[in-house]
Amino acid sequence: MSSRFRGLDAANPNPNAESDPSDSGVRRTIIDLGDGSEVLYIPRFLPSERAWAWFHYLDKEIPWTRPVIHVFGRHCLQPRDTCYIASKGLTDLKYSGYQPHAYTWDEYPILKEILQAVHEAIPGSTFNSLLLNRYKCGSDYVAWHSDDEKLYGPTPEIASVSFGCEREFLLKKKPVKEEGIWIVDQLPKKRLKTSYQEQQSFMLKHGSLMVMRGYTQRDWNHSVPKRAKAVSVRINLTFRQIV
C-alpha cells in the first residue's frame, strides 16, 4: 500500500472509505481511521451558488481579527484571521495564550442558517460554538494540533464547512506511548515515510462539509499547510459543542 499522502475526492477514493448516500442523494464518504476514529466527508454539502453568496457575506461582514498568540515560548501573529461565535453561558475559549471575544449567533443570522444546515446533515448533533478562520493566501496556515481540550469532552464531534479556495487538510496519527517510551514509527528504520493508514490527506472543496468524530482528536493531529498555489481566499467554519 502506498506510503505517501493521498487526496480524497471522487476520482481518488480512500480504500478504507465506504459510500453512504443520504436520503437526498448527496454523496457522503465515511473514512474509518481505526480504533474508534472516523471522518465523514460530503464534498457537495452546499449548492455552489448559495455557498458563494455565503462566502462573500462572511468575507465582508464578519469582524475578522489576526491576534497575537504565544507558541513555543514566543509571541507571534497568528497566520490566519479568526472570529469566534458562542451561545451564552459557555466556558470561555482559550488557546495559545489568546482568549477571543465571543460574538452571539443573533448578531450574524446567516451563521445560524449554516448551523441549521449542519444540524440537518448530521442527525443528533448539537453544536453551540463556532470558530471561523480566513486564509487570505497560501502562506496562511494551521500548524499540527488536535482539538482535545477538556471543554469539548472525551469524544468531540467537529464539523468543518469550507468556502472559497480549495485547501489541503492533513491528518497524522499521534505517536503511541508504550511502557514509558514514545513509539513514533513502528515500521522498519529503512522506511522513512509513515504508512498510509497513519497519514491522510483531504482536498476540501468549496461548499464541502467534513466531520471528525469518535477518538479522532485523541489519536490524530491535523493541519492546513502552506501552499504556494493557493492564491485566493479560503474561509473555514468549525462547529463544536462545549460541554
From TrEMBL:
Substrate binds at residues 72-74, 148. InterPro entries: AlkB-like (IPR027450), AlkB-like_sf (IPR037151), ALKBH2 (IPR032852), Oxoglu/Fe-dep_dioxygenase_dom (IPR005123). One of its GO terms (molecular function) is broad specificity oxidative DNA demethylase activity. PROSITE patterns: FE2OG_OXY. 2-oxoglutarate binds at residues 133, 135, 145, 222, 234, 238, 240. It holds the Pfam family 2OG-FeII_Oxy_2. Residues 1-27 are annotated as: Disordered. Residues 126-243 form the Fe2OG dioxygenase domain. GO terms for biological process: DNA alkylation repair. Belongs to the alkB family. This is Fe2OG dioxygenase domain-containing protein.
